Amino acid sequence: MRSRYLLFFALSSLLLSARSAPQVTIGQTTLSGRDIQPLGVDFFGGIPYAEAPVGDRRFKSPVLRTRLASGTLEAAEYGKACLQPGNPAGMSEDCLTINIYRPAGISSKAKLPVMFWTYGGGFIVGSSARFNGSHLVAYSVERGTPIIYVNFNYRLGALGYPQGQEAEDKRHINLALQDQIAALEWVQENIHHFGGDKRKVTAFGESAGAMMTSILSVNRKLDKLARAAIFQSGSANSPNVYRASRRESLWQTFVSRVPSCSALASSGNTFDCLRNANSSEIHGAMLASLAGAGEMFPWNPVLDTRKDGLYPDLVSKQYASGRFSKIPYIAGTNLDEGTFFASKSPNSTEGTIRGALTAAYSPSRVSASALDVAINRLFQLYPDSPSLGAPYGSGDELFGLPPAYKRDSALQGDLTIDAPRRMWTEAAAQAGVKGYGYLFTQRLQIRDPALGVNHTAEIPFVYGQSQDPAPSTQTLSKRMMDYWISFVVNLDPNDKKGSQRPNWPQYTTRSKNLLQLNGEDTKVIKDDFRLAEIGFINENAVLFHH
């Protein structure tokens, strides 16, 4: 997907119009952006929204950038990605930058609604440069409801989500969530310079990005920063939530791989040394600790139950007591979420799945025996029958993979994505929150059939950039852009502008309606799939650290 985005930008550079580069003035600084033709979109990128989190600021809360250097700031390209697995040439710790796409030449007084995107990547990988908002903005103009699109970078892995007792004691935790808040605060302070309306911000994201956005709704930070939200395949209760101290061994492994600090790994006093290490040491340690973590996503948000903590309690408890933002939302999932996470190892068996589940949900918040009973019940609800597993609707086909794959896919999808989404929409409906739910079911010809309609499959449709050759692809992509843009502008996806599309009803306690998003069969369906299975997971949310 990234290669397609890079190709698009390369072609766009060749198609620049004759008009001068777009400019925006903030204080004593003139930002010089880029004109993306033939789409008629202005781009401003690589704008620092926080001070560089390096040196003494490493492993600390972000410091909002309130003033840019005087003069002209070249803002025609994305900033560098934050440190993560991959080629370090395109990365830097000085990565806290924000990017804006807007309709070309609009006035600073336009007061357009704003879409604020947080990318996913398991809290380990990701970059704003992978998400090109130009088609979305151009289409918003075409349909007569122009919007501004914003995305940003946040710290990843050990730098974004430090773990261990020391991090917990010193509250150097959930730094990436704080980056997200800082970026939203920057938008509140500055988006009017670009023609945006700070009162009309919709925060949206996918996977980890949706989870982070949803977490801001349970600590109520979102109330002052956005008026609506869109959660694509992720909820606040998707991660298995623990205190940072649970992953003490992970933190010690990380520190031990920083050559200049290795002797302090178990000292409980590592941060001063780590702040003096160079970036290449930090990057190497991030890679080494990830390789030996024994978890797919070890660097996660953590509980912080103090008064102003960003993750104050188990989310299921927050939902049950109505402690969350009551802003309008869209929330949905893809048909086969779990195929993205399931093991494809030829050695995968019921025993290996059981071991992985036990490790993921230990130590139990109830008892080890209660967790064991719950896992036994999960295996009864998700039997070793390929026809019942994911990808759903594929019968007994195993795609050359071990039989356990489809069972594991079903479990992973419901435990991580589908059960949390249903818990959220039911809690929101109970509180009278205006919301809309969806199930994305479009099968893609360009995807591995073993993945089905997998996690992340909907993203190109929202961005108007799907390359799938199926005739219904463009139909569905326009519908989804129409629904999303209409919601951002009107807090309702049914403005009847753009493409013809079915009415999307609200999700309520009585109806529990979802919209099935499919190019050949977009229709209203009931949120009643796998009732017993998902019901069991949500009834035992504390056991599953939800």
TrEMBL record:
Show the InterPro entries listed in the entry. Answer: AB_hydrolase_fold (IPR029058), CarbesteraseB (IPR002018), Carboxylesterase_B_CS (IPR019819), Type-B_Carboxylest/Lipase (IPR050309)
Q: Where do the Carboxylesterase type B domain residues begin and end?
A: 21-523
Pfam families, alphabetized: COesterase
Record has Phosphoprotein as a keyword: no
Signal peptide as annotated in the record? 1-20
Keywords (alphabetical) are: Signal
Q: Which PANTHER family match?
A: CARBOXYLESTERASE (PTHR11559)
Q: What is this protein called?
A: Triacylglycerol lipase 3
Q: What species was this sequence derived from?
A: Coprinopsis marcescibilis (Agaric fungus)
